[in-house]
Amino acid sequence: MENPLITIFSPTYNAENFLPYVFSTLEKQAYKNFEWLIVDDCSTDNTVGLLKELQKSASFPIRIIQNETNQMVTKNIETGIHNANGKFLYLTGHDDGLKDDCLSTFVEDWNSLDAATQDNICGLVYHCEDQNGNFIGTEYPFNYWISNDFEMRFKYNVKGEKSSFHKVELLKTIQYAYPEIDVYIPENLFWFELSYQYNFMYINKVMRIYFQHDTHDNISKSIGPGKKYMAGFSFFFHEIIRKYNLYLKKNYFKIWLVFQFNYIRYSRYNLQSYKEIIQRAENKNLIVLLIPFAMMYELIKFRRFI
Length: 306
Hints:
- The protein is α/β, with parallel strands linked by helices.
- It has helices at residues 19-27, 47-57, 72-83, 102-111, 115-119, 149-155, 168-171, 188-197, 230-251, 253-269, 274-280, 284-302, and strands spanning 6-12, 34-40, 62-66, 88-91, 97-98, 123-129, 145-147, 162-167, 200-209.
- Strands 1, 2, 3, 4, 5, 6, 7, 8 and 9 form a nine-stranded mixed β-sheet that branches.
- The longest helix is centred in the C-terminal third of the chain and has 22 residues, at 230-251.
- Residues 8-148 form the Glycosyltransferase 2-like domain.
């Protein structure tokens, strides 16, 4: 059987209440040359059982990979990439839907590009809306704009969840060593590495329905000293600085300073000593200077010591 053009990839965890909705939006796609790849991260509900039932009636292939241990989202993305059969990978959450014309619009947009442009970008990036039809974030400064996430986020200050089709062959070239810790590591660590190497085309069209609801585990509400996930956030800021220190300092100096500042804060949230923070830092002298400001910020904004 010929490989599909598109792999729609969904990492899942306890998603049985959402998957029928996601499945229904996939069945509505006019373009059918795709597969749905799921990596289940040790769900404790009937997620896998439901997926196996959906396999029986689906008009497209559904493949299920079950983790033996909980890996969290960034590891699951890597698993999905290296098991995708499609030429392009489209990442969705386990509760996200696709606009009815999502896949056909992508294929039309991609085929409209000349061969040189296709060869020189990693993929196409669109926008999202919520389940009520509200646009999420801000638009790109230009239509059909070739750039990268650093410039898009840090120079033009584009905000919000985005919707991306990426070439699988290029995704597979991204190698990153993640620590073997059972924590949440922000997936932007992977996407920044991709942006450091490749450009994308950004298009001002809405393609994905980013479902927002009260049952989301809002990680941002659990941030603070000793809280869950702080090891992953500390690792995230340390690695961003280590990998892109000179690049960010030269091109996005303000963001470079913010990352140093957050490296201190999240390392302290992870209960590391100031001595350890300084020793691990890429910019030791700067970190020494910023520590008092980080302490003052926490005291004024959150009324807590770090």
